[in-house]
TrEMBL record:
Domain Solute-binding protein family 3/N-terminal: 33-260
Domain of life: Bacteria
Keywords annotated in UniProt: Signal
Signal peptide boundaries: 1-28
Gene3D superfamilies: Periplasmic binding protein-like II
Protein name (Swiss-Prot/TrEMBL): Amino acid ABC transporter
Length: 264
């Protein structure tokens, strides 16, 4: 009986070892193709052109990162409200879509190193010459932003006596401001500049910058991954550092912006 027990034990150990081996193989996934999710309503970072293609700074940056890693990247347009649930449901592998690394999001996903940081701003009608955007002054005013964003969180925290309207996309509040259906919008400074220059026809102006509070806005924007995909996150971090070192980031940045957005 003792000999039989030893044989069974050996078989069990072998089976366990085989299982560990398979588990190790599964964890060491070889990333050859990576699916990138983004909300393409956020020009100039990502938007859809007249050909139906997703274009913008983060598209070019993601392509450069993927080229450095020698992997194929594909791009999927995803509405902002569903972008983290879709990532967690494995509809894509990474979010590269101007997602600020906030404490609340860090409870659901893991982030790469920050690759840009720009200030949020107030945008209002060009005819409004006042720079006073205090909560007392904006009491009863209609304020807009994209919902489920750091901008919306900022408004909800400080402007409880104003009426706050959330939108699915980032371009919709800007259009409503231009058409007189909103009093103010909170958005990113470069998104506001792009809208005023290309679509706003002089409708609006940037009133003032908003200080980045870490608990609301975080330190900046990073790529978001499922919590188990630390290997993919590490690959991106190495590529981010490499593109900083070889000047690729600066070249892409200069093709879109006149200011340094790197945030380092």
């Amino acid at each position: 009986m003792k000999k039989r027990a030893l044989i069974l034990s050996a078989i069990g150990l072998a089976a366990t070892g085989l299982a560990v081996s398979f588990a190790g193989t599964a964890e060491a996934k070889e990333w050859k193709t990576v699916r990138v999710g983004m909300d393409a309503t956020y020009a100039p970072f990502e938007s859809v052109n007249e050909k139906g293609e997703i274009v913008g700074f983060e598209v070019d940056y993601a392509k450069a990162l993927c080229a450095h890693m020698k992997i194929t990247c594909t791009f999927q347009n995803q509405d902002w409200d569903g972008i983290i649930p879709s990532l967690l449901a494995s509809k894509f592998d990474v979010v590269i879509s101007s997602m600020n690394e906030t404490p609340a999001r860090m409870q659901k996903v893991i982030f790469s190193d920050v690759y840009y940081a720009t200030p949020p701003v107030w945008m209002g009608p060009a005819a409004n010459k006042s720079d006073d955007v205090s909560p007392a002054t904006l009491k009863g005013k209609l304020l807009g932003s994209q919902s489920s964003t750091t901008f919306a969180n900022y408004l909800q925290k400080y402007y409880k006596d104003s009426e706050i309207k959330g939108y699915p996309g980032a371009d919709e509040p800007n259009l409503d401001l231009a058409n007189g259906r909103l009093d103010y919008v909170v958005t990113d400074i470069l998104v506001a500049q792009s809208f005023i220059e290309k679509s706003g026809n002089g409708c609006c102006r940037i009133i003032k910058e908003i200080k980045r509070e870490p608990d609301i806005f975080g330190p900046g924007v990073g790529a978001a991954f499922r919590p188990d995909d630390t290997d993919l996150r590490d690959m991106f971090n190495k590529a981010i550092a490499a593109l900083d070192a070889d000047g690729t980031y600066k070249k892409i940045e200069a093709s879109y912006f006149k200011i340094d957005i790197r945030g380092k």
